[in-house]
Predict the 3D structure of the following.
Amino acid sequence: MADFDSRVLRQFGYNGDSTSESNESAAYAEIVVIRHGETEFNATKRMQGQLDVELNDVGREQATAVAHRLSRERKISIVYSSDLKRALDTAEAIASSCGGLEIIKEPDLRERHLGDLQGLVHHEAAKVCPKAYRAFSSRRTDQEIPGGGESLDQLYDRCTSALERIGSKHKGERVVMVTHGGVIRTLYELASPSGQPGRVLNTSVNIFHLSGGDIWTIKSWGDVSHLSQTEYLESGFGGDTTSGLLLPIYARYKRDFFHRSWVLLLDASIKWGPLIHVNFIRVVINQIRFCYRPQEIEVRMA
């Protein structure tokens, strides 16, 4: 139990030795990367890209929740944000809650431009714009999307260079970066080429440590514990098949890890009774561990 407690404390910026912590943190920049709150396009499964869509009521609640969480954690120096409204409004909630921090608008943190697909309902896109959808679905990383859309290579270049610029300016500091699902998945794939980022949820907290210019460490991934009192995670769609969400009963998790596990299993048992079996239990426990247990991945960039 003591080992578990120490890991939790380290996740939130405390290791019991303020001197060693200070010396260690001076060697890297801690970038807290957050996806914007929910929009109506997320909820209706429309492909946003760089369309300037505002937060819906759920998204504003999510922004308030993540802002409150960050205000109770380690001090933040500054907030960077995509200049699109859904990200900027989320950033403003965080900056206000954390003492009126400065916000720097960074266009390189925008979502991938999806060309002719922007504004379309995802499941209709292949029929409405087949050429653009084939480009979007292509495995070629240099494939641009008709209508001014970006290739994956273009997205990769601008968002990774943005993170490196921010990291180099803020060694020894904790910085928040509010951006979009496509950008966050790209950053993960750079830091962990063999890993899978999974679904990037609205206002999820993802923490990177940048040491020098070539070492990225993922300290925590996909943490949405601040949304434990909401019922809205299932509608957090980001325009593709990898950004939506988990189960509605996920919203009933309690803050304690073990308590959450048993609450979910109890709910499932009541609903499905004899259909519950060992494989389902394993899936549930693995899902909770993935979302709430910090992952540490260190990769040297080529």
Summary: The radius of gyration is 19 Å. DSSP finds eleven helices and seven strands in the chain. Residues 1-21, 244-263, 289-302 have pLDDT under 50 and may be disordered.
